[in-house]
Amino acid sequence: MKLFLDTASVSEIRQMWATGILDGVTTNPSLVAKEGRPFETVLREICEVGIPSVSAEVTATEVDGMLAEGHRLAKFHPAIYVKIPMTVAGLEATKRLSSEGIRVNMTLVFSANQALLAAKVGASYVSPFIGRLDDQSQDGIELVRDIRTIYGQYGFKTEILVASVRHPVHVLEAAKLGADIATMPMAVMEKLVQHPLTDLGLAKFLKDWQKVPHEKSGGA
Fold this sequence. Notes:
The chain is an alpha/beta fold. Helices cover 52% and strands 16% of the residues. Helix 1 (10-19) links the parallel strand 1 and strand 2 (24-26).
């Protein structure tokens, strides 16, 4: 499963990119607004890191505006995937952009029916927001299971990009179901590395190492 960072922080992206575990980045208007800098500047710096997949979202709500923004974003950098919301206008825009070879990440998906429609119009990614479903007392992971079943049944090529990930268990369950991608904030990605037994084991090894006799270095 590919791991994406859900952020517009260039410093976070560079930090995780250096580890070798990062496969892509997802952004949205809210994340970019937190940076307090021009959108184009932030997006350019993210792309310059070398990330192979960077999702950037349109802000228009009608078809013509989505198409105009989609074309502009697609020309911005080869790594760009255009994020388009799951609406009637979004479906039409996705169909038209995907038919031109522009890769679309259909976002704000909350049902298997919506995911089915996203695949039918040629979206490259579909982004089910599992954490927000959990917030409404619905099972977000169950949605991922349904989408995986439907896509497998019909051979859709759209990749399942699990979004609104709140904790490591979301990542684990998504991976067990065969989700293609999980995108998460920095805090969640850091927790994937951590385990208290790892910390305790390392501390013990280092403590025991201090007891091992070492040859003294130095010339005669």
